[in-house]
Amino acid sequence: MKSVKGTRDLLPRDTYLFQQLEQGALVHFARYGFREIRTPIFEETQLFLRGIGDETDIVSKEMYSFEDKGGRSITLRPELTAAVCRAVIQHQLVGPTDIVKLMYMGPMFRYERPQAGRYRQFYQLGVEVFGSDDPLIDVETIEALMSFIQPYGLPNLELIVNSVGDSTDRPAYLAYLREALDDVRDQLCNDCQTRMVRNVLRVLDCKNENCQSLFGELRPISDFLSHENRQHFEAVCNGLSQLGIPYRLNPKLVRGLDYYTKTAFELVSGDLGAQSAVMGGGRYDNLVQTLGGPATPAFGWAMGLDRMASLLAARGMEEKGPDLFLVFGERSWLDQALPWIVKLRHQGLEVTYDLRVGSFKSQMKRANRENARWTGIIGTAEWANGTVSMKHMATSEQTTLARENVAKFIEEQHA
Ligand code: HAM
Questions:
Q1: Max CA pair span of the chain
Q2: CA-proximal residue: ligand 1, atom 14 (nearest)
Q3: Among 34, 59, 79, which is best to mutate for testing ligand 1, by the most ligand atoms less than 8 A from CB?
Q4: What would the DSSP string read from start to end of 298-317?
Q5: Model's pTM, two decimal places?
Q6: Where are the alpha helices (DSSP H) in 31-156?
Q7: Which terminus of the chain is less hemmed in, N or C, by CB atoms within 10 Å?
């Protein structure tokens, strides 16, 4: 038996990278006032229909929906923004003057065509800020993202921003698009022809080169933005520049979810092939209200952890080995040394050994394979006088120590 198509096991080499990101995120985003929320893996289907938009690919083609034994229509969460809004409303987390910052991480489910970097169960780490439409929130929340990933030193990342307007100005742009595309309708791909009827903004996102060449002459949405929305977008761009965050304007960036208003953005990588979006997000000032809550402007983004982890792996980031690998001359010495080994672990060291206690050579080979920092060799002389010969694996330097001093020694070496 194998894991279901589009799903995969995260093995220790993968979970190590995920943990780095998740643990780092809890510390980093706490500095900005974010607190973690954990919502259920499944929700009522209706939540995503109303929240994400029933003409989006996610809702129309990709949801894992089923009827439970009680006859309810249930859906495995394809994203978390709608679910977090549901929780915010249900628990009345946001009052009229509050700003609430929530973060989350966990699995999402979309029935997409699997390919490199695209899975049917994938993982996101995201943040959502409720309670303000101030452009400063957009800037600050994008900055929090950029400074989170900055220490990983990933090259070829580009921040792309746009404003998609809102109900005050977008309808005019949609009407313009329909009219402008009417003449070339027959030359558009089948998907775009459907989008023209159901969700015309999404044509801009089409990957088909022929379609894109037909869109070359289209006016950008920025021509249609209301004075207020234009000012908002300018404030976001100026704020990013003020913080020294480079970005590129792309008037064709529209995102695949219908709830966005004003700012929309993505971080794309040149190193990921076709699935280049590492994360995406933006402002969604109407979603809480659409889902039955009070008018609550909001902003957020979600990062694809699978894609981030693959970028980190490509940069050579990997699990560190044990602090100490013990090599014994005889198996019976290992049995007798067990209380000492247990004590080392209680002192905070990661200690391992080869249970078969073969030749020195095979044990040393294994220490190498496991990427141990130190190897502690206990041969006849060491066993007789209660010492260990400590070999630093990276430099091959060697020192002999009394056994009881090992924990202190390693701690001092890595202080
Ligand atoms: P999204 O763009 O649909 O946005 O997903 C965010 C990120 O999740 C993507 O950039 C990508 O890295 C990752 N991702 C999406 N689908 C897959 C997949 N099938 N396999 C692997 N990774 C994937 C949202 O989900 C919004 N809720 C973001 C947001 C939060 N907007 C406001 N707040």
A1: 92
A2: 304
A3: 79
A4: EEEEEEEHHHHHHHHHHTT-
A5: 0.94
A6: 45-52, 57-61, 81-90, 135-149
A7: N
